[in-house]
Amino acid sequence: MLSVESIIIGAGPCGLSAAIEQKKLGIENIIIEKGNVVEAIYNYPTHQTFFSTSEKLGIGDVPFIVEDLKPKRNQALVYYRSVVKHHDLKIHAQEEVLKVEKIHDHFIISTTKQTYKAKYVTVATGYYGQHNTLDVPGADLPKVHHYFKEAHPYFDQNVLIIGGKNSAVDAAIELDKAGAHITAVYRGKTYSKSVKPWILPLYESLVNHEKVKLHFESEVIEIKEDEVLIKTPEGMQTIPNDVVFAMIGYHPDYAFLENMGIELITNEFGTAPYYHRETMETNVENLYIAGVIAAGNDANTIFIENGKFHGGMIAEDIHSKKLKNQ
Ligand SMILES: Cc1cc2nc3c(=O)[nH]c(=O)nc-3n(C[C@H](O)[C@H](O)[C@H](O)COP(=O)(O)OP(=O)(O)OC[C@H]3O[C@@H](n4cnc5c(N)ncnc54)[C@H](O)[C@@H]3O)c2cc1C
Asked: How far apart, in whole angstroms, are the C-alpha atoms of residue 263 and residue 146?
């Protein structure tokens, strides 16, 4: 069994930041990551541009400089790899944490490869690995996707996009460029307020020119092999269909959190883990959370921009506990 003072689960930007801040205060740590560094960003749409400026995405005092104001996915992959090298972070990649158990005053962490013992654990596992699911017949057909990568395969195809937030809007814009025939259904009465203001005019223009046939206050009722049934204010419609992008959001792995004893609370957006606002410590002593996972179902409150600061709060708390115990 490998013994280490602190383990961070997840090498996303917020997990990396937590590792750097702990290292700065002399807290020996390793990161365990089921994929590789910034796996969620790697899984973004290939041509994704961040909504944040590179400065706001920067961590660990390593400048993130790009020619444009807002970096692209590929530039971020290079940047975060260079941060890992610069700070010489210890990452155990391609290793998934399966279980975290507290035994007396330490944790036993079981992974797909080995078992670790640690005094402190930080969970920074994000939400992108778990997509929300549709509850309609046909939702499990292979043509239904919850992640959008590239538009080319959908040239001249009938595509249905479900959802009206950023990921749905971004996918529609890309798919239009590649010549897909796009229908979109969205439950809202009008465009979502969360759509980034510089993206919305492009989308509105596609809708106004009927390049995207957008149905507000509408939902999908059934997905079949070559058509979809949708319910709109004008009544039921059957539309020819080759592929569906259900861009209906993502959520933290709540079972993973619950199994390690983290209390879940219910708020107006759904579920969220309980934690102390000043320290990011959960109800389990010495077990912390960092990054977007802290927001639970309310994905619009914590981003890299602010989640990257959780690491500093956690490191300070661990450091002050260590000083008290000296
Ligand atoms: C398309 C898109 C664009 C976005 N653009 C921006 C933006 O411009 N600005 C911004 O601030 N935010 C943006 N976000 C939101 C969010 O900030 C990012 O998703 C960010 O990656 C979250 O960082 P994180 O470190 O909290 O989690 P993640 O980056 O999701 O990292 C979690 C890591 O944990 C790993 N993991 C999960 N479970 C386990 C396990 N059991 N064992 C081991 N490893 C595990 C995952 O593989 C992953 O690498 C965007 C999100 C999306 C989807």
From this structure: 28
In a domain, 260, yes or no: yes
| DSSP class per residue in 141-194 | STTEES----SGGGTT-EEEEE--SHHHHHHHHHHHHTT-EEEEE-SSSSS-TT
pTM across the whole model: 0.96
Q: What is the pLDDT at residue 317?
A: 98
**Whether residue 278 sits in one domain with residue 183:** no
Q: Are residues 148 and 260 in the same domain?
A: no
Range of the domain at 318: 2-130+250-325
Q: Whose CA is nearest to atom 35 of ligand 1?
A: 10
Best substitution site from 170, 292, 305 to test ligand 1's pocket, by max atoms within 8 Å of Cβ?
A: 292
- The domain tally of the chain equals 2
CATH number of the structural domain spanning residue 194: 3.50.50.60
Query: Amino acid letter at 215?
Result: H
Of ligand 1's listed atoms, the one at least distance from the Cα of 51 is: 8
DSSP class of residue 50 equals: P
Residue 72 CB coordination number (10 Å): 16
Is 267 a residue whose pLDDT tops 90?
A: no
Q: Which of 246, 279, 302 is the last residue of a domain?
A: 246
DSSP string across 255-295: HHHHHTT--EEEETTEEEE---TTT-B-SSTTEEE-GGGGG
Q: Are 23 and 29 in contact (CB under 8 A)?
A: yes
- Both 222 and 268 in one domain: the answer is no
218: number of Cβ within 10 Å: 21
Structure tokens at 253: 């792995």
Residue type, position 157, single letter: Q
pLDDT in tens, 142-179: 999 999 999 999 999 999 999 999 999 999 999 999 99
Task: Give 235-249 pLDDT, tens digit per residue.
Answer: 999 999 999 999 999
Helix, coil or strand: residue 95: coil
Domain end: 202, 224, 246, which one? 246
Determine whether the shortest distance from the Cβ of 18 to ligand 1 is under 6 A: no
